[in-house]
Amino acid sequence: MSILENWEQWKNFLGDRLDQAQLQGMSQEVIGQMAHQVGDYLSKQVDPKNEQERVLSDLWSVASEEEQQAIASVMVKLVENNSTH
Fold this sequence. Notes:
Elements: H1 7-23, H2 28-45, H3 51-62, H4 65-81
């Protein structure tokens, strides 16, 4: 089973990557840019595997560049606040 198939596993995976990025000294700006790149890649290359991902994909597809940045930023905050570490 792919981590993309389970929303909680996906958030935990993102949280772990965020923890690693912060430990390596990446700034919030760089993390936000990377989150946007990941969101853009996922929206173009990966079929959503659950309801939450479908909502994010649908929102991303109609959002402007600025709104996509906001979505990416909110996802970073979500995994920060739900971090298992």
